[in-house]
Amino acid sequence: MSNQLRSNAAVNAITRPSRHVDWPTTKGRLSYVSEIFGEKVFTLSKMAESLPKPEFKKFVEQVQGRQQLDRSTADAVAHAVRIWAMNKGATHYCHWFQPQTGTTASKHDTFLSLKTVNNNGVDETIALDAFSGGALMQSEPDASSFPNGGMRTTFEARGYTVWDTASPMFLRPAAHGTFVLYIPSVFISYNGEALDEKTILLRSNEAVSNAAVKLLHVLGKTHVKRVITTLGCEQEFFLIDRSLYQMRPDLKMTGRSLVGSVPPKHQQLEDHYFGAIPSRVVAVLGEVEMELFKLGVPLKTRHNEVAPNQFEVAPIFEEAAVAVDHNLLTMEVFHTVSHRHGLKVLFHEKPFKGVNGSGKHANWALSTDTGENLLDPSATPETNYQFLLVLAATLDAVHKHGGLLRAGIASASNEHRLGAQEAPPGIVSAFMGEHLDEVLNAVEEGRPVNSKNTAHLTSVKVGGTQLDIKVSTLPDISRDLTDRNRTSPFAFTGNKFEFRAVGSKQSPSFPVTLLNSAVAASLNDVAAALIEQKGEAELPTTDDILAVVRKFIAQSKNIRFEGNNYSQEWVEEAARRGLPNIKSAPAAFKQLLVPANVDVLVSQGVLSQNELNSRYHILNETYTKNQLIEANTLSAMVSQSILPAAFTYRKELCDSLRGLKEFVLDYKSTPEFTALEALHGLTNTLQSSNSALLKVIHTVENLGDTDKEAEVCGSELVAALNTVRNAADALEGVVADKHWPFPKYAELLF
């Protein structure tokens, strides 16, 4: 029966009609991307067209100044956006927020309102469409039903969503051709504590802006009023056929395969990366892009990734909070569109054992409100003193608070990816590239940049060198002086840092919040050191700046590493440098409680002590729940499907041997007996390991202490689960294919 279901699923995957969606047209031709970009977004331009000029000016001033929105302006915006949305088919609106679940949430309200009027002396109730500024600015979800870390009890249900005016409203499809107006929002408790991912990100953006502005003002750039955190999130994922997905309880319940052996061919031929994108996938990507372009999401790149059925999309960078909104929106659109095409998107960091996992490389930088990138080294970084100060502060932050950054990327799912198949390890380090590393060494040592140290690069200009390809018809090409290091958790890539260790399933909000907070603290330290160094002088001299840069470069030097982060040599070297090698998520979570890390978050107002304790509790609780879901799912698969399949095959072999006994005197030398013997041993091993797993599950469920539960899950439960998996995978190689109950890797990945 199971083989028939697998066969049917495979046939369905091949014979299913392809979905066709027409690209929009403009004046009889296919539309340019720029012509449909932001079509479903209530942009500032659209607001300007529909608001009185004084109200629009007031709104822009309030957003730019990060001030509160007054009621009259909110009423004007609410009226304008309702008319715009309803003219496009909207019937509902919702406050769209980001609870600590890794996903988004919303509840939909109609624009319908009722009003009683007097009609010839008789009261009559009439229907009308209305949307007030109060309804736009605030709504009320149930705060106790979302992760809150004990800040809300079940009977204390009230919470609030509040419109984030800096992120534009947009339309998403609903039923029957209608739309819903989405209002990006923050989510707080009745007492004002942050219950979401966005509130703390916005706080950290302000913290790093205040610190960077302070530093720039010390340098004499008093015209800068605000510094913006910019972010671009590369998103990796797998796409598999939904018919096969439906037959895998592990993928449905946990997002990853809990059993499965790597097929003879996987990624070892290196023929997937940047290869031809399969036609079904191109259809999905095209429809996803079309929807996201209309939603104002600036997707730029798409390509095959290294593993079979693995892909990546990447956007143009944006302001961090908007970039997070757009990343989460990208994931949501992928879920809905892939479903329409009969496919399932997997964002889990390690859905398949033995092939590459997926990350969400967060490209992070700082930019002034005048458009200047503070991490742009220019052609001569050794004399770009502003850049050196910001770079020194960033490296200082990573050095002092590497444990905090490690906590930001820790989860039950990312634990499977870190340190394996091109994912960075749990040791947080920073990669500069040979040239910039030499520049930092030269500044620290008070000497000129030594071109001999970069002789193989031909020149020491950051702008790049020329490569002669030795083909007369091809031009010389420019080469960056900084190579890429894909094993580094935090790598400098020209004019930004790439935080490569962020997991594909994660919201980028929390890791970026922690990074912002750490950098803000170090920027404040650099500014304070510079003020002290310059003394009573109005502006610091070059010598003042270099003295400060030299100090911070020297004290953060241990965090810089230019080599292979996978090597055992680096593990040993990192230990000598005193860098922590945090391998488990529960150990990483504890970094949130380290006094120096607590001070960074609490003193800058990013998280209160109560909010921080709450998040620590939620992280541990979520980790434990995810591990228990995996363990119970695997145990059920073993008991209800895998062992019965083994029993059926064992009976088949026994029946065959009974028949052979009449004709083969030495029946124990037959292939059937050898297969039965191997099957019998592996079946017993699987049965006993599954029983051991159930005992550990029972132990965890009865501990009653969140911290202890997470610790036991991270050690005993994970080990017991892996033992069961190894036995099940070994059995997969022995049981006849017709009896195996689940689609195998060869079917899922090819």
UniProtKB/TrEMBL annotation:
Q: Which SUPFAM superfamilies match?
A: Glutamine synthetase/guanido kinase (SSF55931)
Q: Which GO terms describe its molecular function?
A: glutamine synthetase activity
Q: Which residue intervals define the domain GS catalytic in the entry? A: 197-642
Query: What is the native source organism of this protein?
Result: Clydaea vesicula
Q: Which PANTHER family match?
A: GLUTAMINE SYNTHETASE, TYPE-3 GLUTAMINE SYNTHETASE
Among InterPro entries, the record links this protein to:
Gln-synt_C (IPR040577), Gln_synt_N (IPR008147), Gln_synth/guanido_kin_cat_dom (IPR014746), Gln_synth_cat_dom (IPR008146), GS_Type-3 (IPR052725), GSIII_N (IPR022147)
Residues annotated as domain GS beta-grasp: 91-192
Q: What is this protein called?
A: Glutamine synthetase
A Pfam family it matches: Gln-synt_C-ter
Q: Which GO terms describe its biological process?
A: glutamine biosynthetic process
In the record, the note on similarity to other proteins reads: Belongs to the glutamine synthetase family.
